Amino acid sequence: EDKVVQSPLSLVVHEGDTVTLNCSYEVTNFRSLLWYKQEKKAPTFLFMLTSSGIEKKSGRLSSILDKKELSSILNITATQTGDSAIYLCAVEWGAQKLVFGQGTRLTINP
Amino acid sequence: GAGVSQTPSNKVTEKGKYVELRCDPISGHTALYWYRQSLGQGPEFLIYFQGTGAADDSGLPNDRFFAVRPEGSVSTLKIQRTERGDSAVYLCASSLGSGTGELFFGEGSRLTVL
Question: What is the pLDDT of residue A96?
Answer without folding.
Answer: 72
